[in-house]
Write a structure and sequence with these properties.
Blueprint lengths: L18 H10 L14 E6 L2 E6 L2 H10 L8 H11 L8 H11 L5 H22 L4 E6 H18 L6 H16 L5 H4 L12 H27 L6 H7 L11 H32 L1 H12 L13 H13 L6 E4 L4 E3 L2 E3 L4 E4 L1 H4 L20 H10 L13 H18 E5 L6 E3 L3 E3 L4 E6 L11
Parallel strand pairs: 2-7
Antiparallel strand pairs: 1-2, 3-11, 4-7, 5-6, 8-11, 9-10
Helix pairs in contact: 5-6, 5-16, 6-11, 7-9, 9-10, 9-11, 11-13, 11-16, 12-13, 12-16
Bound molecules: protoporphyrin IX containing FE (HEM).
Length: about 475
């Protein structure tokens, strides 16, 4: 593979199009509706019905919105509207004091020590994934996004509720979430268009029904756990930790219904994103055999996959970082202005939508050297580290930074290591085309060929 391998990138739209064409393209795929100049621009203004929307790529503006003055740029109401039937008042969609209280209870569950405690659950999921893939790793073509989804869902169930994906309720939740996504591709025009409150909004009957079904299952899981906590028999996992943590300010814990909202977002945010990241990383490794060989060498030098050994996988971590740069699972984030702002000498009215795009910033031509090239070694240079401080945000930044970032970095590196150690990966069929669904996905999936690397079914736990 040449040193300058450029993996798939969506075709941009023509520079000048009518509003109607823009909206039509938007509806099909957000990436395809953006012009190439957005990879060079610091800011772009879009006039949409009822309000204006601003894409901001200028690192100073991004810093202002996410870090310096985040309370004046709350999550946009349209996100809440689009997700309410499933997520209720979960931490992903709330703002202000409600959101602050929720984060005070949730954040301790994801601290370093807790991640060490839940690491064995991730290892079990990795071993289960290797065992599940063994029978089909004979050179046939496998759609790896679906496999990655299952792996990430298994990890969430094991770490949150101490149950594997094969558990009856877990399996049902997983399958219903898949239906939900099919019935509501979230990052579509509905989630970007702010429609005035007086216009009635309709959600497909199938979407509403699927949300109701998912929530019924999550209520069962949560109620069972409350009973186990009361009986003193609850396992020491993330759900127990979150449900027993008191807000240090008010002393109150989550109510049962608040907890159901949080479980819904942990499942959605925690499995869709990780699945996208894992699938794209495996694709990049399949295409770039030299890089794959270096990962195999690094992993083979470990004695085992213990928590402390994971820090030795520096190259594997750089591969994952680079994959998150090129294919950030959350491609864009939306905020709303609470007051009049001045951005790059332009007045931004109250109620404008501010779009922050990890996808564009992390491939920005005026910020990154060879922005579209897959080069994990760039992460060893001071230049990249300096650039990353202002233009790398796969987990967002500031007070609303992803609480699962540490979790996701451990999970991602561990899964890559275990899978690449067990299987040789090769691309199959046409290169995937990235599209923005709920997360960055491939239009027709990601096809890879897997073949067993280890001659026997030796556990990957002891190498
Ligand atoms: C590679 C994996 C992941 C990526 C790239 C990712 C990315 C992000 C991003 C960009 C946001 C901010 C969204 C916004 O502000 O609009 C976010 C928020 C969030 N993520 Fe993650 N995430 C990942 C994994 C996880 C995991 C594993 C969990 C939990 C187990 C999680 C839970 C959450 C929650 C609860 C929020 C909402 C936080 C808030 O609004 O205060 N994420 N994530």
């Amino acid at each position: 593979m040449s040193k300058d391998y450029t993996p798939p990138k969506p075709m941009p739209r023509a520079e000048k199009v009518s509003i109607l064409t823009h909206i039509k393209l938007f509806q099909k795929d957000i990436f395809a509706s953006q012009p190439a100049k957005l990879y060079r621009a610091w800011m772009a203004e879009y006039r949409l019905p009822f309000y204006k929307s601003y894409f901001i790529n200028d690192p100073k503006l991004v810093d202002h919105v996410l870090n310096k003055d985040p309370d004046n740029f709350p999550k946009s109401e349209i996100i809440k509207g689009a997700l309410y039937s499933l997520l209720g008042d979960s931490v992903f969609v709330t703002n202000g004091e409600v959101w602050k209280r929720q984060r005070r209870i949730i954040d301790p569950a994801f601290e370093g020590g807790r991640l060490r405690d839940i690491f064995p659950y991730m290892l079990d999921a990795g071993n289960a994934a290797v065992a599940r893939l063994q029978p089909i790793a004979d050179g046939r073509t496998v759609e790896i996004e679906a496999q990655a989804s299952q792996i990430a869902a298994d990890i969430i169930f094991r770490t949150l509720f101490s149950i594997p994906i094969t558990d009856d309720i877990a399996k049902q939740v997983f399958e219903k979430f898949r239906d939900y996504q099919r019935s509501q591709p979230l990052l579509n025009i509905a989630s970007f268009l702010k429609i005035p409150k007086w216009i009635p909004k309709f959600q497909g009957r199938r979407t509403t029904q699927t949300s109701t079904d998912i929530r019924a299952l999550l209520i069962r899981l949560t109620e069972n756990r409350f009973a186990e906590i009361q009986a003193g028999t609850a396992p020491d996992d993330l759900a127990t930790k979150i449900m027993t943590t008191k807000d240090p300010v008010t002393g109150a814990t989550f109510t049962a219904s608040e907890m159901v909202d949080q479980v819904a977002i942990f499942f959605l945010a925690g499995h869709e994103t990780s699945a996208s990241a894992l699938a794209w990383t495996l694709y990049l490794l399949a295409v770039d055999q030299d890089t794959q060989a270096r990962v195999v060498d690094e992993v083979s030098a470990l004695d085992d996959f213990s928590f402390s050994n994971l820090s030795k996988l520096t190259f594997t971590r750089n591969v994952f970082r680079e994959a998150l740069r090129l294919y950030p699972p959350v491609p864009m984030m939306i905020r709303e202005t609470l007051q009049t702002e001045e951005f790059r000498d332009r007045e931004i009215k109250v109620g404008s939508q501010i779009v922050l795009s990890p996808w564009h910033i992390q491939r920005h031509e005026r910020l990154w050297d060879k922005p579209d090239v897959f080069d994990p070694d760039r992460w060893n240079t001071d230049e990249t580290r300096k650039c990353a401080r202002k233009a790398y945000m796969p987990f967002s930044s500031g007070q609303r930074v992803c609480p699962g970032a540490g979790f996701a970095m451990i999970e991602g590196v561990l899964m890559i290591a275990m899978l690449v150690r067990a299987f040789k990966l090769e691309p199959s069929g046409k290169p995937p085309v990235p599209v923005a669904h709920l997360t960055v996905r491939a239009k027709d999936g990601i096809l890879l060929k897997l073949t067993k690397r280890l001659s026997d079914t030796k556990s990957t736990q002891t190498l």
